[in-house]
Amino acid sequence: MRIARFSIDGNVAFGAVEGEGTVESGGLVLDIIKGIPYTDFELSGTKVPLSKVRLLPPVLPNKVVAIGRNYAEHAAELGNEVPEVPVAFFKPTTSVIGSGDAIEYPSFSNELHHEAELAVVIGRMCREVPRERVKDVVFGYTCANDVTARDAQQREKQWARAKGFDTSCPLGPWVETELDPSDLTIQATVNGEQRQLGRTSDMIRSIEDLVVHITEAMTLLPGDVILTGTPAGVGPLNVGDEVAVTIEGIGTLTNKVIKRG
After folding, report:
1. CATH classification of the domain holding 10
2. pTM of the predicted protein model
3. Residues with Cβ < 8 Å from 10, sequence gap 6 or more?
4. pLDDT band at 173 (very low <50, low <70, confident <90, very high)
5. What are phi and psi of 62, to 5 degrees?
């Protein structure tokens, strides 16, 4: 099931996406969900065309835990070794935007990069999750773009500003709850030109590895997001560019880059 979060007439709700097509092409409708999707819910039967609503970030995470250098070719393209243990960092909730929202080019950077990633959405409170229970705590999957101020990342020891600035975490367009994430095509295009093309099967650490590793240290809450790393091919974004992240079985997350302010 594809579950979107949206606003219409000033109201915010979740809905199940039905029909065939894309956000741009039309043909999709939303069956409004009664309540929130992390618990048992019912479909209301009230349907609205997706073209009549504004898509919002599909979740409002308490935290986004991101994993760096989880694809060997990406680590190599930036001159880095594959880490012995997963490299984790946070992106704040203020960095999260939805599909169709603008990425604001930060004033402290002259080198903004796209990073297409599979995002894991957590569905229940969990801590110290054993490997065999990981599927039980995952709500679903969505597309993400770990937008990075590469020059700031290289000159600052911490990545907080480089990867945590406002609008640096596009998520969407919705969450797919019924998906095998082990071998999916993941790609990024800029102005229609392909930049990144990889498969989730190339991850160094699997989703199970990452959930176990993260929950050894912290409690994850419903709606929290794990970014699983990016394949090779990251590259520059400029004001006016349109960047799209497409993941097999999920859909396409599209954002335009604008000048901040």
Report:
1. 2.30.30.370
2. 0.96
3. none
4. very high
5. -65, -35
